[in-house]
Design goal:
Elements lengths: L2 H29 L5 H15 L4 H36 L1 H12 L5 H13 L4 H19 L3 H18 L4 H10 L3 H28 L8 H7 L11 H24 L5 H9 L2 H17 L6 H10 L5 H20 L1 H10 L5 H16 L2 H12 L8 H14 L9 H9 L4 H30 L1
Helix pairs in contact: 1-2, 2-3, 2-15, 3-6, 3-13, 3-14, 3-15, 4-6, 4-11, 5-6, 5-7, 6-7, 7-9, 7-21, 8-18, 8-19, 9-19, 9-21, 11-12, 11-13, 15-20, 16-17, 16-18, 17-18, 17-19, 18-19, 19-21, 20-21
Keywords: Cell membrane, Membrane, Transmembrane, Transmembrane helix, Transport
Membrane topology: Multi-pass membrane protein
Main location: membrane
Length: 456
């Protein structure tokens, strides 16, 4: 056997084993020793990095780079979303929206209404943005309806994460469509066809089943923040309340339309893209909430300012944990885990859809990033897909998106956001988030296989 092949196999085997040991260590430290997730992930990162052959100082630099990168993207968005939710709760806007939604769906139909609302809000938004916007509505809906928190939350989570995986214009599906030269409109149509049954199974049906077996109460700090009783002189109307929460959605949708339908250098296109940046869109929404929901409804300026500042303290632990997850992801990437999985995939002889799904699953498990999983998988498969028909290319792109959300765990920012926002234990987070994501992923795979058989 070629000595270089032996060295390659030995290195890759060691790298995969180090990933597994690091993840197991993180789980044990959190669940058994009760160490904070941030510290547990830091320890696991050094185990993975040093074990994979990186120098300790390289591990430290990779961790800092990854943590800074994800906090630069998600940290400010989470902070702005927390402020927006606090103002909506304090002013009564969240109660107004929840009361109206309760009028549309009561009892058994309420989870279905939540899933539909989450799909509408999540269509143009990153999952992190959609989640921070939906959390106050979820808490108030659970309080007003008297239903279990998970029965309301899981359909909302399913609606947002499914679109994030299967529907352009989200980054993952768009990357796959571009790399595989698939048709965007056809991919959106097929993606919606897959998204509907995925949301139904992972949302209302799974939420009803799990809420009967797991009792979860809103966490003390965030629950008090987002579930506060209105204190304004008058409650804002439903129209302005809905407009404020949909403002980031509309701005980001405008940015997407500008990228697709307008010439790139026109003033209108540049303006829409600027306003549609998540940071800008949420910042504008917070300012609009302060003026239209706070000041205009009789809340003193000092009280609004206190509400905004109060919104930041409960998310400090969440931000540290998400940053640590980003550090772990970057360390594994620097150690070469993507290349390892890519090399293993090149020798596989499987049907296109199954191969695309499995590669994306492996990369997501190793790196914790749907974007990395999608980009790398599409790059590996692109040369093989040159002769495929338009429908087949679109289905391969969707299979990649489905694989990129399989069983997300401790190296995933969304995992820690769900855990901290809903006050879950580690085991509970696996049931709420990891299993939910797995249902979406498997339904996406089965759906692409059935459509391939039916349409080609």
């Amino acid at each position: 056997m070629d000595p270089t092949a032996i060295a390659w196999l030995a290195h890759d085997t060691r790298l995969i084993l180090c990933c597994l040991v690091a993840i197991a260590t993180i789980i044990v430290l959190i669940s058994v020793t009760r160490l904070p997730p941030f510290l547990s992930i830091l320890v696991g990162t050094f185990i993975a990095g040093v074990g994979a052959g990186l120098a300790p100082e390289e591990v430290a630099k990779a961790f800092s780079k990854g943590a800074g990168g994800i906090l630069g993207e998600a940290g400010i968005i989470i902070a702005l979303g927390s402020m927006l939710g606090a103002v909506m709760a304090e002013s009564g806007a969240a109660d107004r929206i929840a009361s109206t939604l309760l009028g549309l769906g009561k009892g058994r139909s309420l989870p279905w209404v939540m899933a539909l609302v989450a799909m509408v809000i999540g269509l143009p938004l990153f999952f992190e943005v959609g989640l921070v916007m939906m959390v106050p509505i979820i808490f108030v809906m659970a309080r007003q309806s008297g239903q279990p928190l998970l029965k309301i939350a899981i359909p909302a989570l399913a609606g947002m994460t499914t679109l994030h995986a299967l529907m352009p214009p989200h980054p993952g599906p768009l990357i796959a469509v571009s790399a595989l030269h698939a048709d965007l409109g056809l991919t959106m149509l097929l993606g919606f066809t897959l998204a509907v049954p995925a949301v139904i199974l992972a949302g209302p049906l799974y939420g009803n089943w799990l809420s009967r077996r797991m009792d979860v109460q809103a966490p003390a700090e965030l629950g008090a923040l987002f579930d506060a009783k209105p204190s304004g002189q008058r409650q804002p109307g439903f129209g302005i309340s809905l407009l404020i929460i949909l403002l980031p959605v509309l701005l980001m949708l405008g940015s997407t339309l500008a990228k697709v339908a307008l010439a790139p250098e026109t003033s209108l296109s540049v303006t829409l893209k600027f306003l549609g940046e998540p940071l800008i869109a949420l910042g504008i929404a917070v300012l609009a909430a302060v003026v239209c929901l706070g000041w205009a409804n009789g809340l003193p300026r000092e009280q609004v300012g206190t509400t905004l500042r109060k919104a930041l303290a409960p998310i400090a632990v969440l931000l540290l944990t998400i940053g640590a997850g980003g550090g772990l992801k970057q360390t594994l990437l620097d150690a070469g885990v993507s290349q390892t999985i890519s090399k293993a995939a090149e020798g596989a002889h499987l049907p296109y859809l199954l191969l695309a799904w499995l590669i994306a699953v492996a990369l997501r498990q190793a790196t914790g990033s749907a974007t990395v999983a999608t980009t790398t998988t599409a790059g590996i498969l692109a040369p093989m897909m040159a002769g495929l028909a338009a429908t087949q290319s679109s289905l391969v792109a969707l299979a990649i998106g489905a694989g990129s959300v399989f069983f997300c765990h401790v190296n995933d920012a969304g995992f820690w956001m769900v855990r901290e926002y809903f006050g879950l234990q580690l085991k509970q987070t696996i049931w709420v988030w990891s299993v939910l994501q797995t249902i979406v992923s498997v339904v996406g795979l089965v759906g692409t296989l059935l459509l391939w058989w039916w349409l080609t």
